Amino acid sequence: MIQVKPNIAAMTAYTAVWKNLDRRKYLRLDLNENTQPLPEHVNAALKRLIEEQSLQMYPSYEHFLPKLGQYTNTELDHLVITNGSDQAIHIILTAFLGQGDTLLIAEPEFPIFSLSAQINGANIRKVPYNEDMSFPFAQFCDAIGDDTKLIVIINPNNPTGTLVSIEQIEIILAENPDIPVIVDEAYFEFTGITSQPLLAKFPNLIIIRTFSKAFAMAGLRLGYILASAEITSQLYKIRAPFDVNCCALAAAEAQIDHPAEWQAYVREVMAVSKPMLESFFDQHDVSYYLGAANFMLVRSKQRDEVVRHLREHGILVRPMLATAIQDTFRLGIGTALETQRFIDVFQRFQHQKVI
Ligand SMILES: Cc1ncc(COP(=O)(O)O)c(C=O)c1O
Fold first, then answer.
1. Same domain, 21 and 87
2. Which atom of ligand 1 is nearest to the CA of 157?
3. Number of compact structural domains in the chain
4. What is the pLDDT of residue 352?
5. Which atom of ligand 1 is nearest the CA belonging to 85?
6. Alpha carbon distance 250, 225 (integer Å)
7. What atom of ligand 1 comes closest to residue 212's alpha carbon?
8. N or C: which end of the chain has fewer CB within 10 A?
9. How far is it, in rounded angstroms, from Cα 207 to Cα 154?
10. What is the model's pTM?
């Protein structure tokens, strides 16, 4: 009988929440994506790739890397581009984790870290977030042991939305100089908060980011890693030479060169839509966690009914499955118009329940 390795056999595959659902027909507040289409100038850049007959060639990265270096203010040997930040996670974990090693992470967390740790045969130690979903700093530090080979901090965390302070990250880096520490900044463009200045001081710091969120490129798959040259040179051995496709590069370059539209979107989400939602929830006694990015966790005793009601009215949100947050859904935040639409539909559910 053909058998995979025992650690793979023991895994459960990642399953999408929605099956057989055409997400294009919905207001998609379920995966923390940018809700808007790519700007026309990005579409034009993609069309040019076809017209110039570039798609039959393997991609090359010499042109794009300096562009990303400029955007991130980083030397090129401190950068690795990846096929989405999911691949960044997998490459880093593959480099540092083997059979019996332990990865430390606070839960509930973004699931790809655990999946990749299992693929690499590693153990996962999870420290629960505090009840108010703040980062459990003391418990997290206490959980670092001799077997800890990699520390993960998601900042802000998905799904809780909460931040870890840069001071706390600095303490973790300083106290564990021999343990690599990943700081996942997938939502950097929304928060403006980064550990990047710590890179110069701490060679154990590895930052990952993505073009899937603010840049509206989730379908194109582009992420990147910022780390010391010692680390990036090792990671390049694992990423295959052509893993990042040329469409992702063309779109990312267009977004970096012409940031007005995605930046306006980020401003609207953070300065208009988010306060709108918070004041609506406050006025209607709906409990939620104060997230730092373009999504929030909302609690409801009738969580499944709310999620169904929203879906029946054309809006997708993400019901959470982790034990501590089983009565919540994660709500992505889009434009002010979309937020008003969510509020109207959500309110209809509340009224139905009162009547
Ligand atoms: C915290 C975090 N990290 C990484 C990712 C993966 O993003 P991608 O693989 O699309 O770059 C996500 C996506 O939701 C995320 O929330």
1. no
2. 1
3. 2
4. 76
5. 11
6. 19
7. 10
8. N
9. 10
10. 0.97
